From TrEMBL:
SMART domains membership: Pro_CA
Pfam families membership: Pro_CA (PF00484)
Species annotation: Paenibacillus mendelii
Sequence similarity: Belongs to the beta-class carbonic anhydrase family.
Leader sequence segment: none
Domain of life according to the entry: Bacteria
Protein name: carbonic anhydrase
Keywords: Metal-binding, Zinc
InterPro entries in the record: Carbonic_anhydrase, Carbonic_anhydrase_sf
Enzyme class name: lyase
Catalytic activity: hydrogencarbonate + H(+) = CO2 + H2O
């Protein structure tokens, strides 16, 4: 049986048994948080539990390395929607130790594209269209550097209101321990 078949079989049972009822909430984050974090599988359940977040408490955006590669990309759009449409008032950028984006070798990854059938013509067309692989596949030297990069893009974004607080953390993916990099309560009474 395929992975999709297993998922669909479980899903049917989940709905029939009304297991979803314990997850019911609305679309507005109860704690008014939007979190930009990494897509690492170790964080899926660990991060919310390590922060005592329940379903409905925060908007969680997952992106490789918690990196914003451009100020007008889809992850930044999601942060803006969370703030302007869904009432988030604070942004948490959470990277983690042992991230695959640390020292990412762009050239090696481009070679993997080739190995999987992406032609040099396609890669050349992308380069000539302004897609620079070293920027598109940007990694970082340390998770702290990656978190600070994203914080700087968010803080300096022309569409982010001045009253939005942006905090930075690095998580230990084995224990859930959080290292606080930036606690940003500029101009607030906190």
């Amino acid at each position: 049986m395929s992975v999709v078949s297993h998922l669909m079989t479980f899903n049917k049972q989940f709905v029939e048994e009304k297991q979803y009822e314990s997850y019911l909430t609305d679309k507005f984050p109860d704690k008014k948080l939007v979190i930009l974090t990494c897509m690492d599988t170790r964080l899926v359940e660990l991060l919310p539990r390590a922060l005592n977040l329940r379903n409905g408490d925060a908007k969680i955006i997952k992106n490789a390395g918690a990196i914003l590669t451009q100020p007008f990309g889809s992850a930044m759009r999601s942060i803006l929607v969370a703030i302007y449409e869904l009432g988030a008032t604070e942004v948490l950028v959470i990277g983690h130790h042992g991230c695959g984006m640390t020292n990412l070798d762009t050239k090696a990854m481009v070679n993997k594209f080739r190995d999987r059938g992406v032609s040099d013509t396609t890669l050349s067309t992308l380069e000539h269209s302004g897609i620079r692989m070293e920027r598109f596949l940007r990694g970082f030297q340390s998770p702290e550097e990656g978190v600070m990069h994203s914080i700087n893009i968010i803080r300096n974004h022309p569409l982010i209101p001045a009253d939005i607080q942006v905090h930075g953390f690095v998580m230990h993916p084995d224990t859930g321990a959080m290292d606080l990099l930036v606690e940003d309560y500029r101009g607030s009474n906190e």
